[in-house]
Amino acid sequence: MGLNLTTITSAAEHVPDLPPALNCVKLRQMTNAELRRLARIVAEARLEALEREIAAIYAVFPELRTGRSAPNEGVREALKRAVTRRRRPRLSPKARKRIAEAQRKRWTELKAKQSNTSTVHDTAATSATAMKAARKKK
User: Helices marked H in 1-138 — which ranges?
Assistant: First the structure.
């Protein structure tokens, strides 16, 4: 909260001992020391009001003093369980080896398939070129 005229004016409305005619014109005529003193009075009054409000809340809800309320316990625990990440089981070295071998086999098959396909494309391209050359000779 900054120390400016608007802040002091709005906060001063909540202080019962201050004159109600405290407006911006009067505040502008005050020195910095007077403004600071007024701001401190306003801040102390606001703190007292907040303390009274807190006391009233604790009177109605005494369980809030401990920081844990009984009805919220179930909600907190449910949230805690929901937020924790699911842990995957660790793979044994045997399982990792099987997966690696299967993946190598897949890659080998894929490369073999691609090389066969490219050979077919190369053969088709070569025969197309040969056909064009034959047409030109005619």
Answer: 5-12, 24-29, 32-60, 70-83, 93-137
3-class secondary-structure state, position 17: coil
CA distance 67 to 61: 11
Q: Give the single-character DSSP code of 16.
A: T
Question: Tokens 């691609």, residue?
Answer: 114
Calculate helix-pair angle for 32-60, 5-12, nearest 10 degrees: 50
Tens place of pLDDT per residue across the chain (138 aa): 455 666 666 666 656 566 655 555 576 777 888 888 888 888 888 899 899 999 998 888 888 877 655 556 666 677 676 666 677 788 899 999 999 999 999 999 999 988 887 655 555 556 666 666 666 665
Domain ranges of the chain: 5-83, 94-138
Q: For residues 94-110, b (16+ Cβ closer than 10 Å) or e, as one string?
A: eeeeeeeeeeeeeeeee
Q: Tell whether pTM > 0.70.
A: no
